[in-house]
Design a protein that fits this description.
Blueprint: E1 2-3, H1 6-11, E2 14-20, H2 27-36, H3 41-47, H4 58-64, H5 73-83, H6 90-106, E3 109-116, H7 118-121, H8 128-147, H9 150-154, E4 161-169, H10 178-186, H11 192-212, E5 217-223, H12 235-243, E6 247-252, H13 258-268, E7 272-275, H14 297-313, E8 317-320, H15 322-328, H16 340-345, E9 349-352, H17 364-374, H18 379-391, H19 399-417, E10 428-429
Parallel strand pairs: 2-3, 3-4, 4-5, 5-6, 6-7, 7-8, 8-9
Antiparallel strand pairs: 1-10
Helix pairs in contact: 2-4, 6-8, 11-12, 13-14, 18-19
Length: 430
């Protein structure tokens, strides 16, 4: 096993490809912004079914909202709606984007993608372009600040790069956000699933327009409940992105079986899968034969292997979020049972990510340290996974520029990892 300290891990160049903005604002900043905006945290929490708050203090938020443990995915999603109440002004959205980007850089991340659902931030006086511009400004401020440092220039370090991934939702609730309420009122008579498809298409168009207008938008994602809401229902939105140069990912196989992953790959042109923890849980497959009969156990196992083989051949990146998966999936409370080792066994490209830094109380460094310690990871596998993130990135530039950046990332990694690297931090192997 590789014996590496946190200090050494921080020095290594890493990525964070699956990170939600609204799940990564820490309690201190949330409380500060709420006070600035004169928002009653206790009252706002009650609106979203979070009862028991009395003061709305940082300590109380950390105890009762950003919990140490969640019972299931639905409970885990509750804090998001509360947090978003402070993320509907240009100033707060920019500040949060900037501070998260600073936190990422501080632990050795050199490329990361901030994903968010613009429709959760929309208000009549805070529309699409203002939302995108706010996050874009925060990220660019952080990039410019860190890339101008003397140390980065003097040692020709790997520059800091960021991108944005816009999230559509598989399902919508008109009472959750002003945008959904507006859409529901304008499209009377439409069922919620049709409205969700319309909303997803609008986010896809926003992603393409934002990319073409020079913002850091690099990708499109679909999130939300999988069971009963297949990604294939949003095929039109994915195809629009695919045909217009915006890369795609999809939350799939997190809370539903392997067929959810196949649906995203087959119908949505995705280059990455968010979570995918159910890939090898073949007993959960509900897919049936063409005559309507159940698949045999052998057929189910072969179905899962076929998906894994296709992902390996097509170099579809698996966005793995260890702590988040332990929070949302009771069967993975013991992270030694996480299928990440099986992903590597099948030669899948694995990119470790945080998902939600605040709600899951995690950091990129935590994710990597757990990965090394829990799964007996050696030097070569650590290098493989670190570099996989750079390879799987939806880089904001041309393919040639991405290739050059990947090459620099590999060289920078090897320079630091070596015992004679610029930081003189030899890594012991046991």
């Amino acid at each position: 096993m590789l014996n590496i300290t946190r200090e050494q891990m921080i020095k290594l160049p890493k990525t964070d490809l699956h990170m939600h903005l609204d799940g990564s604002i820490d309690a201190k900043l949330f409380v500060e912004l709420a006070k600035h905006l004169k928002i009653d945290i206790v009252g706002e929490a009650a609106k979203h079914g979070i009862n028991g708050l009395t003061s709305g203090s940082v300590e109380e938020i950390n105890e009762k909202v950003f919990k140490k443990e969640y019972n299931n995915l639905m409970e885990y999603l509750v804090p998001f709606e509360l947090v978003n109440c402070v993320l509907r002004t240009p100033e707060t959205l920019e500040e949060v984007a900037y501070k998260i980007a600073c936190d990422e850089f501080a632990e050795g991340v050199r490329y990361f993608e901030m994903r968010f659902a613009p429709q959760k931030h929309w208000k009549p006086d805070f529309e699409w372009e203002k939302i995108i511009k706010s996050v874009d400004s925060g990220l660019k401020k952080a990039m410019n600040e860190f890339n101008s440092k003397d140390g980065v220039k003097a040692r020709n370090e790997l520059p800091y790069r960021c991108g944005m991934v816009l999230c559509a939702m598989r399902m919508i609730n008109p009472s959750v956000a002003d945008y959904y309420g507006m859409l529901h009122n304008l499209q009377t008579g439409k069922d919620l699933q049709s409205l969700a498809q319309m909303a997803a298409m609008e986010i896809a168009q926003l992603a393409v327009d934002s990319k073409n207008n020079g913002f850091l938008v690099v990708g499109f994602d679909l999130a939300g409940r999988e069971d009963g809401y297949p990604s294939g229902e949003h095929k039109q939105a994915f195809e629009y992105c695919y045909n217009n140069g915006v890369q795609t990912t999809c939350h799939a196989g997190e809370a539903y079986g392997p067929e959810s992953i196949m649906d995203a790959i087959k119908y949505c042109h995705v280059r990455r899968i968010g979570h995918g923890t159910q890939l090898f849980r073949w007993k959960n497959i509900q897919f049936k034969n063409s005559d309507g009969t159940e698949l045999s156990d052998e057929q189910k196992q072969e179905y899962a292997r076929t998906i894994a083989e296709r992902m390996a051949r097509e170099r579809t990146t698996m966005e793995v979020c260890l702590k988040s998966n332990a929070d949302t999936i009771p069967a993975l409370r013991d992270l030694k049972k996480h299928p990440v080792k099986d992903f590597l066994k099948y030669n899948l490209r694995v990119a470790l990510s945080t998902d939600n830094r605040a709600i899951s109380r995690t950091t990129v460094t935590d994710e990597y340290m757990n990965f090394v310690k829990l799964y007996d990871i050696d030097e070569n596998t650590l290098r493989q996974v670190c570099i996989a993130g750079f390879k799987g990135a939806f880089f904001p530039g041309t393919y040639a520029e991405h290739r050059r950046y990947m090459s620099r990332a590999i060289d920078f990694y090897d320079e630091i990892f070596g015992s004679r690297g610029p930081f003189d931090l030899p890594i012991e192997k046991t």
